[in-house]
Amino acid sequence: MKSRSVYRATPDHAAATATAREERGQWVMACLYPSSASAKTIARRVPIAEMMPAYEPAGAYEAYAAQHTDGHALWVRYVVGDEPVPVLPDRMSVRIRHDGDGPGYCGVGIITVTVSTRCPQCGGPRGFDTVIPHRFHHDGDWYVADRWANKCGHVDMYDAVLAESREVLLPLVAAPLPVPAPPAEDSPAGLILTAAKKSRGMHAQQAARLLDVHGHIEEAERIRAELRSRNGHMSAKQAADLLHALSGPVAEGGVQ
Ligand SMILES: [Zn+2]
């Protein structure tokens, strides 16, 4: 079996959408990107299916980008159907146990904090809808804190939640995206665009063969996979746009 790097050069959106369709309304991690800008760009394109044929028709999927221990994750969910899917809020408020910072502090403290609803490890939705009161006994007194379970399986520890709540909560509203630079001439997308200029009506199948010749085997396979999901309807120009969109053309740090 072929090994894959953490940053998959050929994100398998077809597999992600298949899983998402089976579990309508449930968030599925589609893939990881090395830069937050790339993940945000793709997250913006998914709901409108812009150059993302796996997510057609427009409006069938929702998406968001979130930080992941190994990069930046794209999370998607399928929303087509009569019953509305529950809204994923941006924040959740919970009661946690915090017994004080200073030396000599004794006793139990319960404080209410507000944190993101995204798991800090994988970016998946936290169990904001599973919060239940947890009563505990300490030194003759009863206290109540909150507990919740994250669907991703990552466990939130109170100390980490407290630290997170003390960080500045940045607005989740997306900043304007920088205009991506055109593909470099010697990149797979650039090679296709140069050839397509000379050969009007060039098909994506020819673009894939061109990439084979130049040794860009993975990109050629990516195009063929897309072609299959589009039932063979794809121009060379569309293939170039797709590769360019997936290559993470926006510089890291372009969007904060
Ligand atoms: Zn997680």
Secondary-structure topology with pairs:
Layout: H1 13-22, E1 28-33, H2 36-45, E2 61-68, E3 71-78, E4 91-97, E5 110-116, E6 132-138, E7 141-147, H3 158-166, H4 188-198, H5 204-213, H6 217-229, H7 236-246
Antiparallel strand pairs: 1-3, 2-3, 4-5, 6-7
Residues 119, 121-122, 124, 150, 152, 154 line the site of zinc ion.
Plain-language structure description:
- With 256 residues, this protein is an alpha+beta fold.
- 29% of the residues lie in helices and 20% in strands.
- The protein folds into three domains: 1-87; 91-166, no CATH class; 176-256, no CATH class.
- It has a three-stranded antiparallel beta sheet with strand order 1-3-2.
- A hairpin with a 2-residue loop joins strand 2 (61-68) and strand 3.
- Helix 5 runs antiparallel to helix 6 (217-229) and helix 5 (204-213) packs across helix 7 (236-246).
- It starts with 12 loop residues before the first helix and ends in a 10-residue tail after the last helix.
- The model is unreliable at 1-9 and 249-256 (pLDDT under 50).
- The structure holds zinc ion.
- Zinc ion is lined by residues 119, 121-122, 124, 150, 152, 154.
